[in-house]
Specification:
CATH class: Alpha Beta
Shape: globular
Number of domains: 1
CATH topology: Aminopeptidase
Largest sheet: 5 strands, mixed
Order of helices and strands: EEEEHEH
Number of helices: 2
Number of strands: 5
CATH architecture: 3-Layer(aba) Sandwich
Amino acid sequence: MTITITLEETGSKGRYVARVEGQAETGEMTYSRLSATRIIVDHTGVPDSLKGMGIGSALARNIVEEARAKGFTIIPLCPFLKAQADRHPDWADVIEGLKPASR
């Protein structure tokens, strides 16, 4: 199974769209840009037909990688992203309010 994630952005709003090979429906993670260095992730949606395929996790990992590559931080208002971030203290460099992993 191949998941392809693309970015759609208009002004200060954007979304990452996850497409699964052979599936018509898509998953998404939406955000609002506060500045060049901060975004608010407000929603992650995965249709029932795609549940259990790792779409939400792939979207979360993707936005963390994008934040690191492009130099922005994320305010996780989306409950799904917040829960994922709580499981990944190593994301504290780009997730605002996340405690770094203890050493």
